[in-house]
Amino acid sequence: MTALPDTGGRSMTVEQSTRHHTKRAFLLEGWDTVQDQPGNKYGTGAGGFDQGIRVLAHLFSGFIFYGVVGWLLDRWLETSFLLPLGMVLGLGLGVFAVIAKFGRVTGPQESDT
Q1: Domain ranges of the chain
Q2: Residue 6: per-residue pLDDT
Q3: CA dist., res. 57 & res. 20, Å (int)
Q4: What is the tally of helices (H) and strands (E) in the chain?
Q5: Cα–Cα distance between 39 and 21 in angstroms, integer?
Q6: Helices 48-77 and 82-102, interaxial angle, to 10°?
Q7: Whose CA is closest to 68, among 54, 52, 82, 48?
Q8: Neighbours of 70 (CB within 10 A)
Q9: Share of the chain above pLDDT 70, in %
Q10: What pLDDT score does 3 carry?
Q11: CB-CB contact of 74 with 80 (8 Å)
């Protein structure tokens, strides 16, 4: 990683510098933690259960919504293949939404060890 000079003469990695500047910005704005930041998508005290429920909600909502759209199109066009197609499409878009919203799992941070 690239080291950046610190104001105290110490050198920091880019990640440490970003973390330092983020904490400083939160303090300047009067926020104690990331959870206090307005609009934080995980809210305060978001545990694994809360995130799991959100993931399931995204998956089921895409599955159900596009399944209903497929069923309505099947009834309107008098076909029989759009319901399963809509369900599969909805499930795929739900998985995409979960990945886009929650990102990937990373290993422990330097501060966790």
Answers
A1: 1-37, 46-103
A2: 47
A3: 35
A4: 3, 2
A5: 19
A6: 150
A7: 82
A8: 21
A9: 59
A10: 46
A11: yes
What's the pLDDT tens digit per position in 40-82? 555 555 567 888 888 899 899 999 999 999 999 999 999 999 9
CA atoms within 13 A on the CB side of 67: 12
Q: Which two tokens stand for residue 25?
A: 């910005």
Q: Which residue has the tokens 């050198």?
A: 11
In this structure, are residues 34 and 26 in contact, taking their beta carbons and an 8 Å threshold? Answer: yes
* 54-62 long-range Cβ contacts below 8 angstroms, 24+ apart: 54/101, 54/102, 55/98, 55/102, 58/94, 58/97, 58/98, 58/101, 59/91, 59/94, 59/95, 59/98, 60/94, 61/94, 62/90, 62/91, 62/92, 62/93, 62/94, 62/97
